[in-house]
Design a protein that fits this description.
8 strands; alpha/beta; 269 residues; signal; 16% strand; VWFA domain-containing protein; VWF_A
Length: 269
């Protein structure tokens, strides 16, 4: 179900659940909202790069209603648009559903209104119904708010304090055009702010990262039991290759260092 709300931003909500993290695989129990900017301060090329980046990000996060990530994607400028209205929507718990959300984003080129996106993030987190999950909100924007930077101070602090939310600011654009102080106000600390250059990835992902849509779990388990020997051999080989990878723990040489850093922020803070 699509929604429009005054205030602009794109929010991607990712929920990671349980387990240990491979170098580029998020498998912790997290409720994540990522808000991405589709305002006029972006351009067509940046918007396309953003969609590709988010799609690759999802490829490297375990997706599951119970044992992995749930993801909501909201697009914002002076309106908010989403194909999901809550974490309970099916499009949030399968990789195909999340990619449908990402591919459905529209470059609407309005004004950048971050204040309203913060309020929307609060509403989504308040109904997440996973008390033991770490809440994460990722803003993908140039940080230049229509209502000014100062208007973000109290709402951002309330978002972090009320929900114990880990807030991450990902800047888009040339370094001299990104409002880094604004991103730092959102995140609450400097080491949770990065400027994206959209460093190319070749689409690699971790062996453990299956598309765990819970509606299909039983079928997958039956198939896995039949293929255990082959699967175990393949995963063992890939894990050995991973251990031989670079010192930064590359799960696959196809995953960029930039993407690895974003996943580490999402999973570890």
């Amino acid at each position: 179900m699509a929604r429009k709300i005054v205030g602009a931003a794109l929010i991607l909500v990712v929920l990671c659940v349980s387990g240990e993290v491979g170098a580029n695989l998020c498998s912790k129990k997290l409720d994540i909202i990522i808000a991405a900017d589709v305002s006029g301060s972006m351009d067509d090329n940046q918007f396309t790069q953003l969609q590709t980046f988010l799609s690759t990000l999802v490829d490297n996060i375990k997706i599951s209603k119970t044992s992995g990530a749930r993801v909501i994607v909201l697009a914002f400028d002076d309106q908010i648009n989403s194909l999901a209205s809550s974490f309970s929507d099916k499009v949030t718990t399968s990789r195909s559903g999340i990619k449908t959300q990402i591919n459905g984003l529209q470059f609407t080129a309005g004004s950048t209104v971050i204040d309203t996106v913060i309020e929307e993030a609060k509403d989504l987190l308040s109904s997440a119904n996973r008390d033991t999950a770490q809440k994460v909100v990722v803003f993908v924007t140039d940080g230049v708010n229509f209502n000014g930077t100062d208007s973000l101070v109290l709402p951002a602090q309330e978002l972090r304090d009320t929900f114990n939310a880990r807030v991450i600011g990902l800047g888009i654009g040339e370094a001299n055009s990104v409002n880094i102080p604004g991103l730092r106000i959102l995140a609450g600390q400097n080491d949770r702010v990065l400027i994206l250059t959209f460093e190319p990835s070749s689409g690699g992902k971790c062996c453990d990262d299956d598309d765990d849509d819970d509606d299909d779990d039983d079928d997958r388990k039956r198939r896995r039991r039949r293929d255990d020997d082959d699967d175990d051999d393949e995963c063992d080989d890939r894990r050995r290759r991973r251990r031989r990878d670079e010192d930064d723990g590359g799960c696959s040489s196809g995953v960029s260092n930039e993407l690895k850093n974003v996943i580490k922020l999402i999973c570890y803070g």
